[in-house]
Structure formats: structure tokens, C-alpha cells
Write a structure and sequence with these properties.
about 60% strand, four-stranded antiparallel beta sheet, mainly beta, eight-stranded mixed beta sheet
């Protein structure tokens, strides 16, 4: 079994910065793409950013130029550096790994528990 644990959520003023971390633990062979999603109260969960094991990134238009996703494969950890934060960034941020290999041709999708980011104006 695999779990993802997010950390780093906090209350920050508009224009500020925050760095989220998500560490994978448990028994697994490898992790493919890792990503961040967010969900504001009363809203659908939305895509924020993804990164492949090779470092290829993809971002939602709303965060391009402000957020940076990165990963440390040796530590099985993905990060989200958030700069120039806006009140509309307020949400619970979830870490996601859709393709965790846990055996021969066996993959699991895993979600973290979420970490709350609140951006005040």
C-alpha cells in the first residue's frame, strides 16, 4: 500500500509565497506522474500542475508563471512552489499520483489527504 502526505499549507497574505510538499511512503516500485489539484469550498476539484518522472511539467493557465512544480525522485517527493499568491488560490490542495507501480504490471492511483492554503487580501 502507498500513501501520499501533503504538508506546507498555511495562511498567507496576497502576494506572498508558500511551498507545499508531498511525500510518498509505503511499498511500491516506482511512481510515474505526480500532480497537484485543488478544491475551493463549493467548487469542483481542479487541476493545478503535473510533473512526470523525467521532469516534464504541465500547468493550469491560472497558475502559469506563479507556481512551479518539482520533484525529488530519490525522496519520492513532489513540491509546489507558489509565488504571487492571490485570494482565488485559496483551496485545499491535494497531491495525486495516478500511476504508482506496486507490482508486475500493477498500478494504483493514490491521493493525499489535502493541505489547506488560505490567501488573505
Amino acid at each position: 500500500q502507498v500513501q501520499l502526505v501533503e504538508s506546507g499549507g498555511d495562511l498567507v497574505q496576497a502576494g506572498g509565497s508558500l511551498r507545499l510538499s508531498c511525500a510518498a511512503s509505503g511499498s511500491f516500485a516506482s511512481i510515474g506522474v505526480m500532480g497537484w489539484y485543488r478544491q475551493a469550498p463549493g467548487k469542483q476539484r481542479e487541476f493545478v500542475a503535473t510533473i512526470t518522472s523525467g521532469g516534464t511539467t504541465n500547468y493550469a493557465d491560472s497558475v502559469k508563471g506563479r507556481f512551479t512544480i518539482s520533484r525529488d525522485n530519490a525522496r519520492n517527493t513532489v513540491y509546489l512552489q507558489m509565488n504571487s499568491l492571490k485570494p482565488e488560490d485559496t483551496a485545499v490542495y491535494y497531491c495525486n499520483a495516478p500511476g504508482v507501480r506496486v507490482g508486475w504490471a500493477r498500478y494504483l492511483e493514490v491521493w493525499g489527504q489535502g493541505t489547506l492554503v488560505t490567501v488573505s487580501s
